[in-house]
Amino acid sequence: MLSLTRKTDYALVALSFLGHRHETEGGPASARFIADTYHLPLPLLMNILKELSSAGLLTSTRGATGGYRLAKEPAEISVLNVVEAIEGPLRVTLCADENAPAVCNCNILEECPIRKPIRGLHFRIAEFFGKTSLADVIAESAFECCEETNTHQVSVSAANGSGYGEANGSCKVNE
After folding, report:
1. Is 134 exposed, middle or buried (0-12, 13-18, 19+ CB in 10 A)?
2. CA-CA-CA-CA torsion for 113, 114, 117, 118, nearest 10 degrees?
3. Angle, to 10 degrees, between the axis of helix 31-38 and the axis of helix 42-54?
4. Residue 30 CB: number of other CB atoms within 10 A?
5. Using CA atoms in the order 134, 168, 173, 57, what is the torsion angle rounded to 10 degrees?
6. Alpha carbon 60 to chain centroid distance?
7. What DSSP state is assigned to residue 95?
8. Degrees (nearest 5) of the Cα angle 93, 95, 97?
9. What residue ranges define each of the domains in the chain, with the CATH number in brackets?
10. pLDDT tens, 21-79?
């Protein structure tokens, strides 16, 4: 089955949260705060945030008021950027790769009757991921600002399906 890894799911959750925060509050968020808000394993999230920082998608600031924030505007970060930062180059199959003869050990590579349509599918998926921005993801996410209490209601059913929780009294997490 073609699917993104849990690491990529968590990366998109964290980036969407930081993108929403960028648009509303503007301040950084710590790895612990994000992990607590979405019930994500902190060590795994810290590795993911480090990979996203190395890819130039996040910046980090040390200290008591530090944390992570987007390095670019949400509209400038594509889902493909996130997938490649976490998983490496997107590949539907090994033979879809430009260097297929060198990396694919398929016995029928040269005579394969479906290689061309599979490569076309690969490029359409890559194009779709490349054209879908973090801003698009955020726009369809369930972030609702509650102005009276200055809290944020956040749906996380797609992120981890782990029920309800509250983090530091400022974010309510709902399914």
Report:
1. buried
2. -150
3. 130
4. 17
5. 10
6. 17
7. G
8. 90
9. 6-141 (1.10.10.10)
10. 988 877 899 999 999 999 999 999 999 999 999 999 999 999 888 899 999 999 999 99
